[in-house]
Amino acid sequence: MRKETILYVEGVTVSFDGFLALKELSFYMDYGELRAMIGPNGAGKSTMLDVICGKTRATKGRVIFGKNDTNITKMLEQDIVKAGIGRKFQNPSIFSNLTVFENFELSLRKKTKGVFYTLLTRKTAKDREKIYSVLETVGLVDKADVMAGSLSHGEKQRVEIGMVVAQDPELVLLDEPVAGMSVKETESTAELILSISKNHTVLVIDHDMDFIKSIAQKVTVLHDGMVLCEGTMDEVQKDERVIEKYLGREK
Ligand code: ADP
Ligand code: MG
After folding, report:
1. Residue from 16, 37, 55 whose mutation best tests the ligand 1 pocket (most atoms within 8 A of CB)
2. Each residue of 73-128: pLDDT tens digit?
3. What DSSP letter does each residue of 70-105 carry, written as one string?
4. What atom of ligand 1 comes closest to residue 48's alpha carbon?
5. Contact indicator for 213, 234 with CB cutoff of 8 Å
6. CA-to-CA distance for 149 and 244, rounded, in angstroms?
7. Which ligand has the shortest distance to the CA of 50?
8. CB within 8 A of 175, min separation 6: which ones?
9. Percent of the chain with pLDDT strictly greater than 70
10. What's the rounded mean pLDDT across residues 24-33?
């Protein structure tokens, strides 16, 4: 039988020189879930992702991942990628002077070899195939040889999502994937995330309520470094604490 829980974030505290960005935060995800996380600016959402992917160290608590219950709390970032966690950052991190295809190549090899090795090795037919299959998923096949810097904002975001998917992680973490997108771009990104979630466990952080509503089964509301509440979008929107602290009341 398949183990249910893919991720345990348990009692995680992050202190930045005494300022507590996360306060004994506990958060769990099941295999196959498409979860959304919302909450005001500064709630600690990105910090939580930083802890999961090893960019920021937990001051207290632990993070357990995967079918062997690997303790990843102190693992290096690249080892966490290898363990099966992929993350799209809030700010774009693609290389403008490389083509879309080359950006994908980099991302693919980062998982197995590290960046420097990547630049020196030739691509295999298998890599090519994999890259084209992901380009198709993100709808960018015809942009493969275009410089990434010349893409529209929406396309850049799709490249980034694709680069994460190309690493074939079990768990995909997306930090504000539709920020700055038009309504149409947001809708097509929602479709893209739904299709990714068929084969991956996905956590999406965002502020756009219509977007979250269109994708998420379960929503976690983070506030002040702690989980404020968790449930369906309907449940969360009716929660008094969420209305008070985040959504606000209709006037
Ligand atoms: P969110 O993503 O929910 O908007 P963040 O996780 O980015 O929130 O930030 C949570 C809090 O931690 C904020 O008050 C932010 O200013 C602070 N913070 C984040 N990163 C650092 C850092 N490297 N050093 C100091 N404070 C930080
Ligand atoms: Mg953030």
Report:
1. 16
2. 999 998 999 999 999 877 768 999 999 999 998 888 766 655 555 555 566 788 88
3. EE-TT--HHHHHHHTEEEE-SS----TTSBHHHHHH
4. 6
5. no
6. 42
7. 1
8. 45, 46, 49, 87, 88, 89, 90, 205
9. 92
10. 97
| Ion ligand 2, residues whose Cβ is below 5 A away | 45-46
Domain that holds residue 66: 1-84+206-251
Strand partners, 36: 204, 219
Does the residue 30 lie in any domain? yes
Is 95 part of a structural domain of the chain?
no
Q: For residue 16, what is the domain's CATH number?
A: 3.40.50.300
Indicate which residue's Cα is closest to atom 16 of ligand 1.
Answer: 42
How far, in Å, is the centroid of ligand 2 from the Cα of 51?
13
For the chain, the domain total comes to 1
Nearest atom in ligand 1 to 225's CA: 10
Is 34 a member of any domain? yes
Query: For the segment 195-206, what is each residue's pLDDT rounded down to a tens digit?
Result: 999 999 999 999
The binding-site residues of ligand 1, defined as CB within 6 angstroms of any ligand atom, are 16, 19, 21, 39, 41-47
Point out the ligand 1 atom lying closest to the alpha carbon of residue 205.
2
Question: 207 alpha carbon to ligand 2 midpoint, in Å?
Answer: 10
pTM: 0.90
**Per this entry, what is the length of the chain?**
251
Ligand 2 centroid to residue 42 C-alpha, Å: 7
Q: Which ligand is nearest the CA of 19, by number?
A: 1
Amino acid sitting at position 125: A
The answer to whether residue 131 sits within a structural domain is no
154 by DSSP, 3-state: which?
A: helix
Query: Once rounded to an integer, what is the mean pLDDT over residues 179-186?
Result: 89
Asked if pLDDT for residue 1 goes beyond 50, the answer is no
